[in-house]
Amino acid sequence: MVGRENALSLIDLALKHSQGDQTEVLLRGEDSYLTRFATNHIHQNVGEKDATLAVRVIFGKKIGSASTNTLDEGSVRRTVEKAAEIARLQRENPDFKSLPDPSPVPETDGFSRRTAEISPEDRAKAVGAVIAKAKAKGFEAAGAYSTRARELAIGNSLGVRAYHASTGADLVTVAMSPTSSGYAEQSEVDAARIDPGAVADTAVRKCAESVESVKVEPGEYEVILEELAVANLVGYLARLGFSALGLQEGRSFLVGKLGQKIVGENITLWDDGLDPTGIVMPFDFEGVPKEKLTLIEDGVAKNVVYDSYTAGREPGKRSTGHATPGFFGNFGPAPMNLFLKPGDATIEDMIKSTKRGILVTRFHYTNPIHPVKTIITGMTRDGTFLIEDGKVKGAVKNFRFTQSVLEAFSNVELIGKTPKLIGGFFGGMSVPALKVGKFNFTGVTEF
Amino acid sequence: MPDLTRLALERARESGADYADIRVVEDKSESIHVKNGIVSALRSSESKGFGIRVLYQGAWGFASSSRFEEDEVKSVAEMAVKIAKASTLARKERPVELTPLPAVRDSWTSKVVKDPFEVKLEDKIATLLESDRLLRTDPKVRVADSEMGFWREKTTFASTEGSFIEQEITESGGGVSATAVDQGELQRRSYPAAFGGDVSQAGYEWIEGLDLAGQAERTAREAVALLSAKQCPSGTTDLILESSQLGLQIHESCGHPIELDRVFGTEASYAGTSFLTTEKLGNFRYGSDKVNIVADATIPGGLGSFKYDDEGVAGRRTVIMDHGLFKNYLTSRETAAELGQESNGTMRADGWNRLPIIRMTNINLEPGDWTLDEMIKDTKDGIYMSTNRSWSIDDKRLNFQFGTEVAWEIKDGALGAMLKNPTYTGITPQFWGSLDAVAGKREWHLWGLPNCGKGEPPQTAHVGHGAAPSRFRNVRVGVGKW
Does the pLDDT at position A240 exceed 80? Predict the structure, then answer.
């Protein structure tokens, strides 16, 4: 970790060297550790310390970017010069208006010193506890326990200065028998809240309940989607529809539909980087402060997310604080801290109300087939069960689904009352389980 | 450099390591993206650092840092051993053993005719702007993407067994795509392949050979034509796959299941395991007798080509499927030892801060003796599908489903109407069992895939797949409700 003072000094240093009309400097640092286990032993155990400085130099409407992870003064200066050299060779981007002006960044707390300083022995002991639970049932455990401290610092020549340090801990495990598997995971800001025994218990229970599974014909079923499966679908919904760039380019399913009902009235979805029950992120990758933004309210599409570039392309729009890192890709803005409104049902309520349906623990290898129709395909995995007449009948072989997400969210019958926090690539999401009235399984596999 | 690598290995030894290696890596890349007449991204990036891998009493540890300086090298070596000691708290019953390997001192540089980092940026931008202009000749094309990227990685590998290897690899790639939108329908066509085009271990000469501008208008025309094309029908039919889609089919349903670490369960909680368990080695019928697949790290230009892997094992050509019979896995020094074999050299890491894991090299379906024209003429009812749009496969690599950008129906030995939203699905051994025709060398192409994901923390590998158009009998197509 570079630290607040050093990070902001490096940003000032880079800005001082820039001759650009506008300049932005972003620093991302990470000390991360991951203990990976399989077949009841630790097989990979790694640590990493890195920090990358990314610079955008702008002459008029010409933008150039360069990055480095060597942070001495000479390298910082050379990176600024490289970005400037690229900007001079660039073509004008008529849609570029300006980098964001400074706005007050809210004070947030997403850092746990205990997590930043956790030792390899502590991680190994937690993994040992998971393995012991699997071994006790004659199963094999695999998974990973990762902990990290991250920092993000941003400054620009208009006066933006922002720094945020955060920590995270994720324990994932799959318990396996020769014929079955069960999965569970837990994500926390503070590693002390990770409960290896509870995570292992869930995975081991699902594995034990799936030892004997039967092949059921694919077709249209009622489904109970546990939180991990819901998160997968919500992620696609957000990515395929709620970026201003997608809307401006005509790629989004929301073209002509903002303000209209797109899913069931029981669905409300928002983005909030400041909610402490999520993964807190006080500002985006341009230093624009986060605020709560409703994406879907009672089934009606309300807003899409903007960064400064997409906001500059539409009169009267401002960045909603959803810029993604420019050096990472060309994605445009994205929701990164999603919340799906909980309901009042338990998983037991959902099972009791199901005549003939499938309970899904999580999906695997999902991929969009048609983005405008929001048709996604993927597999079920690590605990898939048949429900008949309000009771869990037993485990089934895993299904392939091919399903429109908008259609699924138009048929939600029950919503779980306890949301689960699920970590993402940046940020994360908090979602409850759902019972969906109709869901299309189009194939079945051999296990 | 040798002083610091020696210092790292000595410090690891002094801290208790039985074996240690260090990789010092310098990565450099440049990417240019033109979208709708605007250079939307123009980036240059550099990343340097080192990673130390150690074995302590048969358990692994790895630590890495971006600061390649004396004090940091010592501290990271100590941290790697500390992590390995923690690994012994949940150790394998049989401690890790590595297959014997003679010490190697060597250096190697991949072949480059025109250094892509020396070509003027103005010339690269001009090429992309010309492609972009030609992609946007029809107003229904709402998004035109033209891109190119260049990568150079210099790696120094040193081990306590006495190896010291320097390698430098340069890669270049590019592609164009047109996204057409009309009345709620969206369709895309790409050239030469989807998701960034085609990448090769080569210099700028590769970009010149792609002739992006020369293919842009046709690409755009097909995207617009797809908007009003017929929906791909549902049913079972004969399927001919174009070679880039077949490359991805090989990747997902052959390349991943033959990774021996995955077979041993090390990816179980993430990307999954493999149906190709060890009792199948040497006797499992994976496909028809037309299925001849090799893993070849020695082909010039392949994205999976190198002289030594990241354990210092020489790259080689290994027969994977011989006339449909499963013959070999991709292995490492640790996993090969468990089968009583020698490593076939497939361990690679994604940069300095990642641990080497088993990765595909160039996994190639050997050419057959047909031509695409002969295959079409020989097909009464079928579909010809081209260019990947979506991919998905279960966690043992059996049930797969792919979507392609475009297809054409085949009726009575001739190509017919264009079809939109094509998909096909199957179970791996049955699907490969239905392969009955593979085109010959003239239509065989080595595709470069720069985005193969595996491992935790995530790693992205650059791999290659050689393939020619091929025909599969009785495949389920047109999956789902449209």
Answer: yes
This complex has an ipTM of 0.94
pLDDT reading at A151 higher than 60: yes
Asked if residue B372 and residue B421 are part of one domain, the reply reads yes
The SS3 call for residue B259 is strand
Interchain contact, B392 vs A378, CB within 8 Å: yes
Range of the domain at B29: 2-228
- Rg (Cα) of chain A, in Å, rounded? 23
- Residue B100 falls within a domain, yes or no? yes
Point out the domain boundary residue: B170, B194, B228: B228
Q: How is A319-339 classified by DSSP, letter by letter?
A: --S-PPPTTT-S------EEE
Question: Looking at beta carbons, which residues of chain A come within 8 Å of B45?
Answer: 54, 66-68, 327
CB contact under 8 A, B401 and A65: no
CB contact under 8 A, A377 and B479: yes
Contact A38/B265, CB-based, under 8 Å? Answer: yes
Question: pLDDT tens digits, residue range B349-392?
Answer: 999 999 999 999 999 999 999 999 999 999 999 999 999 999 99
Sort out which chain A residues have CB atoms less than 8 A from B275's CB and list them. Answer: 446
B146-197 pLDDT per residue, tens:
999 999 999 999 999 999 999 999 999 999 999 999 988 999 999 999 998 9
Backbone angles phi, psi at B76, to 5 degrees: -70, -35
Neighbours of A192 (CB within 10 A): 12
Looking at CA atoms only, how far is residue B377 from chain A in angstroms?
30
Whether residue B258 sits in one domain with residue B183:
no
Residue B322 lies in a domain: yes
CB pairs under 8 A between A and B: 271
Please give the full DSSP string across B71-120, using - where no structure is assigned: HHHHHHHHHHHHHHHHHGGG--SSPP--------EEEEE---SS-TTTS-
Give the pLDDT mean for A414-425.
92
- Give the closest-approach CA distance of B457 to chain A in angstroms: 7
The answer to whether residues B216 and B185 belong to one domain is yes
Set out the domains of chain A in order of their start, with CATH numbers: 4-199 (3.30.2290.10), 212-447 (no CATH)
Write out residues in chain B with pLDDT < 70, as ranges: none
Which residue, among A69, A93, A232, would best test binding to B if mutated, counting the most B CBs under 10 Å from its CB?
Answer: A69
Write down which residue in B174, B199, B228 finishes a domain: B228
**pLDDT(A158) > 70:** yes
DSSP state of B274: -
- Cross-strand pairs, A414: A435
| Domain identity same for B418 and B303 | yes
Q: How many domains in chain B? A: 2
**Residues above pLDDT 90, as percent of chain B:** 96
What's the CA gap between A75 and B45, in Å, rounded? Answer: 12
Residues B280 and B190 in one domain: no
Q: Between B46, B266, B480, which is nearest A402 by CB?
A: B480
